[in-house]
Amino acid sequence: MSQYQQDIDLIATLKATQNGTWNGIDPEYAARMKTQNRFKTGLDIARYTAAIMRRDMEEYDNDSSQYTQSLGCWHGFIGQQKMLAVKKHQGTTNKSYLYLSGWMVAALRSEFGPLPDQSMHEKTTVPMLIEELYTFLRQADARELGGLFKQLDAAKANGGDVAAIQSQIDNFETHVVPIIADIDAGFGNEEATYLLAKKMIEAGACCIQIENQVSDAKQCGHQDGKVTVPHEDFLAKINAVRYAFLELGVDDGVIVARTDSLGAGLTQKIPVSQSEGDLASQYTAFLDTTPVEGVEDLSNGELVIKQDGKLVKPVRLPNGLFKFKDNTGFDRVVLDCVTSLQHGADLLWIETEKPHVGQIGDMVAAIRQQVPNAKLVYNNSPSFNWTLNFRQQVFDTWQEAGKDVTAYDRDKLMAAEYDTSELALEADQKIKSFQADAAREAGIFHHLITLPTYHTAALSTDNLAKGYFGEDGMLAYVRGVQRKEIREGLACVKHQAMAGSDLGDTHKEYFSGEAALKASGKDNTMNQFDV
């Protein structure tokens, strides 16, 4: 017996005990509402999606072609439309997640207005967005199941294939998928990190991404001026997130440890070493220092540390920050990653300055010498100029192979004149296969784009505004938007139904019977799209 039928029977049994006071309740209607609202709390979602991620991670370990993907979404509606599209075009939500980008929260959701990605936005906005995303995904479930229930009723009334529709209901695949949620650098100390992580998990987050920058000096991973923290400080925050998962009963919650060390040349403090070769001493070994022979080598207020049996003074900038040696980023990234995995993190995130499979793969290979199953979440960032990067990579490969590249100017490969060239076509093929190549060769389990819907919103709005306020007028909307929605089968063309009017009508029928005042009658202009 299906869960749906079990619910009908259980509610009917419960109704029978109410001495007639529940005569207005139809057990099948109640069972339908229960089916349409599978997840009762955010913790239900977090536990369900954590299991999905753990399964996907195991499948990737066995077969690197089984990588996962997501797009960053800054509003519940955007996340809903993304997952409706994935399910429509791919036939399943399997291996598809959502990404919650701190960058987009700062730029689009702060009450201060648009902000840079520097942890200045309200931290409560992050769990609020997680809850919002899942509210919209659950509504997508309710809407699609509502349509199936209508089909079921029609089949029962007209002698249709009831069993086939009932099977679709019983095997319905939810739009609720894992969210990888950005907690930035924790918005404060480890207690602040723990408190915010709890709110995020309670809202439904099964996976939290945290970075090793200084919380109050946080910068976007693709900007300059990044300052990292000693390993001990970062591990305390990883512990804080794990405690939050365990306290709330999400025992298999996922932690992504992000390192910005490849592009960060500064640290805010020098950790205290307790024993030779410990993490603190490994961290300070990367500091840029000058030797100290005597007190005359010191200025007032300068610091001295003992390193390899000698006294040295770390290079200290006017702002009080300490500088790392040049060209140590690779080694610092490897140490960051190995240390994080050995102390409770599940996945890694390495911010790079370009999308280069070889560069990423070299770092992962070094990490896997100590942690063989290390795998990455990787930002397919819009901050990269993908066209120029990959054209230059092809140019360099051709040049090294002795191929004639005199027809191309490496510094100007972004020019439109190259768009149809052999080099550009090969570069586009490399961009197309980048995710599969990097999953296979560079240990990338999850590919995401942090802020694609920020750009798509801007581009689509620009296209509409250009025509609507220009010569095309209303044709710009009709041809560029509405007609495409109809031709491509977007459910959103019926925006009233997408916003919940049909669900509301159904509920009114449940609650009021024939007395229900419904919005979907013959005068509803949405009926014009039933063509």
Instruction: List unreliable stretches of 5+ residues.
Output: 220-224
Profile the largest sheet.
8 strands, parallel
Gross geometry: globular
| Radius of gyration from the alpha-carbon trace, in angstroms | 28 Å
Q: Enumerate how many helices there are, as a single number.
A: 19
Catalytic activity: D-threo-isocitrate = glyoxylate + succinate
Protein name: Isocitrate lyase
GO molecular function, one term: isocitrate lyase activity
Keywords: Lyase, Metal-binding
Summarize the helices and strands and which ones pair or pack:
Blueprint (H helix, E strand, L loop, with lengths): L2 H14 L10 H10 L5 H21 L5 E5 L3 H15 L5 E5 L1 H8 L15 H34 L3 H9 L8 E4 L7 H14 L3 E5 L15 E2 L2 H17 L6 E6 L6 E2 L11 H6 L4 E3 L13 E3 L2 E5 L7 E2 L5 H14 L4 E4 L6 H12 L7 E4 L6 H15 L21 H11 L1 H8 L2 E6 L2 H17 L5 H14 L7 H4 L2 H12 L19
Parallel strand pairs: 1-2, 1-14, 2-3, 3-4, 4-6, 5-7, 6-12, 13-14
Antiparallel strand pairs: 7-11, 8-10, 9-10
Helix pairs in contact: 1-2, 2-6, 4-6, 6-7, 6-8, 8-9, 11-12, 12-15, 13-14, 16-17
